[in-house]
Amino acid sequence: MAEQPHHQRPTDAINSYLPDKAPSTSQVLAVVTLVPLGAVLLCLAGLILTGTIIGLAVATPIFVIFSPILVPAALTIALAVTGFLTSGAFGITALSSISWLLNYVRRMRGSLPEQLDHARRRVQETVGQKTTEVGQKTQDVMRP
Fold it and tell me: Using CA atoms, how far apart are residues 35 and 41, in angstroms rounded to an integer?
């Protein structure tokens, strides 16, 4: 027996996109609060964009007229700011390098006597062992 095709109602397709349950009270309050706020902020953004375009249209001829003065002045200020920032960065780098070096030397100087004592003990132990070995060999040789 052949299967019959499954017939869907037109509303079934639409209902598949809808949620199974109704939105909660907090979700409704969030939408009611945020939609007007978003609309107000969008209007303010549009007004600011309009004001910026008008201001740019008014200021462009002034920039063109004064460009022989403004361009070198802007370049001079930009180079001066860049120089000060670079100088500060190099100064901070130098101070941190000197600080690291001083701390490194202090740590090495504090552990240097301990290292010297350890090395001296090892040398004495080695010399003592060699002396004992040489003494035993000479005794072995001198015994008849």
Answer: 10
Report the chain's C-alpha Rg in angstroms: 43
The gap between the terminal CA atoms of the chain, to the nearest Å, is 120
In degrees to the nearest 10, what's the CA dihedral of 50, 54, 59, 64?
Answer: 100
CB atoms within 10 A of CB 70: 13
CA angle, residues 110, 114, 118, in degrees to nearest 5 = 160
CB 61 within 8 A of CB 68: no
Instruction: Tell me the per-residue pLDDT of 60-114, one tens digit each, with 9 for 90 and over.
Output: 998 889 889 888 999 999 999 999 999 999 999 999 999 988 888 777 766 666 7
Residues 70/63, Cβ–Cβ less than 8 Å: yes
- Model pLDDT for residues 114-123, shown as the tens digit of each residue: 777 778 888 8
Is pTM, for the whole model, over 0.90?
no
> For residues 71 and 77, what is the distance between their CA atoms, to the nearest angstrom?
10
